[in-house]
């Protein structure tokens, strides 16, 4: 299922040797092309998702739990792409978020899986994978 | 643990770092910055300036000014701190290179012409939005963790502990009746466990929290099981690992501090020459409060550093 978002210009991280490699345990291949606004013309952001992505309701529920745990202001923009790190979640926050997700969805997340969650989308996908079982 | 330093305060011109000698074996250096005390825009620009492009972009990606500031200070602190030790030619914070070990633990990538033995400097950083800290040792693995004393835990403490901590630790926390005290002891335990895992360098899943117990051991044999026992001065923090029999308690030593009246800081360092029969004496700890390029103040032995555990 491919999704195209033409209106949003987003900043993507330059690969950096010291940045932690986040290996997602879901089968999603995600490519994003984006440009910083050097000119007045906006560049499209293309995202290809090879496997099935989680339902929007699941993603929204994760966003709600994350916003609550991190006490984010209501106007803070959090989407599936948001990484926990850039939202300011430290290890204790991440563990609390995972606990919140376990309680909300009635699932049990192993330490290894929890460590591979980098974005809100990763969390939502993992939840649905665990719910399928 | 002995805390002392010779010179209290250094003031110097901007863009200069007071050089310092590597800690002796069994000695630990701890440097910390309080973001609230860094107000100069030009100083923050100087910090941004010493970062390579990828680190700079990671900082700018953080969502929110406070988060960006503490992320920036974390990188600036680690670079300027290591540069102070002037290891061979690595005295420029800008030119240091970092990489991750097999399990994701950050380390310095030393640049040498020949492939000599890497310098024995080890470091670890931890930060909250209100305090950033960097610990340094020589020839010993180190892990540190800092947390705000008054951090709120969204979940029920005991539910959290039952899910993530070991049985002994749950019992210890369950025996505390005052919820405020229980929360603070929980946070102290969390920082100690984090520091241990970070010292091991195997990542969160390499040493799951449930697979080891951190407890307080008295000078006399026999454990302390309640908080009341802890009020006795002589207690030592020890770790028992269930999973890894090779990872002996005697390999690691812990200190727990209260920093600047606002944070708990746990330091876990490797012990060498343990088990030789002589009493394990905790090493020396020296603590500096710093604003890199601007001011360093040795705060060991002052009210800014209260040693909770690790004292003889």
CATH superfamily of the largest domain in chain A: ACP-like
Series of secondary-structure elements of chain A, N-terminal to C-terminal: EEEHHHHH
For the record, give the distance between the C-alpha atoms at the N and C termini of chain B, rounded to a whole number.
Answer: 6 Å
Unreliable stretches of chain A, pLDDT < 50, 5 or more residues?
1-40
Helix content of chain A: 25-40%
Number of strands of chain A: 3
How far apart are the termini of chain A? 22 Å
Mean of the pLDDT scores of chain B?
85
Q: What is the mean predicted local confidence, pLDDT of chain A?
A: 72
Per DSSP, what share of the residues of chain A sits in E-state strands of 2 or more residues? 5-15%
What is the general shape of chain B? globular
CATH domain topology of the largest domain in chain A: Non-ribosomal Peptide Synthetase Peptidyl Carrier Protein, Chain A
Strand order of the largest sheet of chain B: 1-13-12-2-6-5
What would you say this structure looks like, in words?
Chain A: It is found in: Plastid, Chloroplast. Chain A: Keywords: Chloroplast, Fatty acid biosynthesis, Fatty acid metabolism, Lipid biosynthesis, Lipid metabolism, Phosphopantetheine, Phosphoprotein, Plastid, Transit peptide. Chain A: Pfam families: PP-binding (PF00550). Chain A: Belongs to the acyl carrier protein (ACP) family. The complex is a heterodimer of chains A (133) and B (312). With 133 residues, chain A is mostly helical. Chain A contains five helices and three strands. Chain A has helices at residues 56-69, 84-87, 91-105, 111-115, 120-132; strands at residues 2-5, 32-33, 45-48. A three-stranded antiparallel β-sheet of chain A has the order 1-3-2, with no helix packed on it. The longest helix of chain A is centred in the last third of the chain and has 15 residues, at 91-105. Chain B has helices at residues 41-49, 53-60, 65-84, 157-164, 167-174, 179-200, 227-230, and strands at residues 9-11, 28-33, 98-100, 106-108, 121-128, 131-138, 142-148, 212-218, 235-241, 252-259, 263-270, 285-291, 295-298, 305-309. In chain B, a hairpin with a 3-residue loop joins β12 and β13 (295-298). With 312 residues, chain B is of the alpha+beta class. The termini of chain B are close together. Chain B is built from seven helices and 14 strands. Residues 274-279 of chain B have low confidence and may be disordered. Chain A binds chain B through residues 11, 13-21, 68-69, 76-77, 82, 86-88, 90-92, 95-96, 99-100, 111-112, 114-115, and chain B through 52-55, 57-58, 60-64, 67, 97-100, 104, 106, 128-129, 147, 151, 153-155, 159-160, 163-164, 190, 194, 203-205, 208.
